[in-house]
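Translate structure to sequence.
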């Protein structure tokens, strides 16, 4: 049975000799969501350290990259892609716009629609962030062979592309 060494925040494969520094996982060892959460925390913490100088959250970076890749996309398009509610997406877009990383333009074909475009400042930010992300990603990807990584990604995609669940608002997930 696995334990978590609380003094190092690192999993170990055998029980620790000190009850004060380790916690046995018990039934959590078999809970997929628990392991996904721990993996998410590890990746997020490394991301924060890597990107600290940019003040760019993972969601902001994802939105910036989606706008760069899909010029003219709407907030609603991006919200659906990232499985976020419209209000949370608007807040992210507002922050990126305040940084002059993106801009909104009124659609020529539908005056009610706001299209999103990356700015010159946004391109520079994205370029810097992508270089940092390469190092960040390598710290995790290097733990797997190319085949293992492809398989892992396909398994994760199987989870989040499922249509059997009703999406929750961003505030309800955590």
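Result:
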């Amino acid at each position: 049975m696995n334990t978590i060494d609380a003094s190092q925040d690192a999993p170990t494969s055998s029980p620790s000799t000190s009850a004060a520094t380790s916690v046995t996982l018990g039934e959590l060892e078999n809970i997929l969501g628990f392991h996904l959460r721990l993996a998410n925390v590890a990746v997020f913490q490394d991301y924060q350290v890597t990107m600290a100088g940019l003040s760019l959250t993972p969601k902001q970076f994802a939105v910036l990259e989606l706008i760069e890749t899909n010029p003219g996309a709407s907030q609603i398009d991006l919200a659906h892609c990232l499985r976020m509610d419209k209000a949370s997406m608007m807040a992210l877009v507002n922050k990126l716009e305040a940084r002059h990383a993106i801009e909104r333009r009124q659609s020529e074909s539908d005056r009610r629609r706001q299209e999103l475009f990356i700015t010159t400042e946004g391109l520079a930010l994205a370029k810097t962030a992508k270089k940092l992300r390469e190092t960040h990603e390598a710290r995790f990807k290097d733990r797997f062979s190319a085949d293992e990584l492809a398989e892992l990604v396909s398994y994760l995609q199987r989870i989040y592309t499922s249509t059997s669940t009703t999406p929750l608002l961003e505030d309800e997930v955590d």
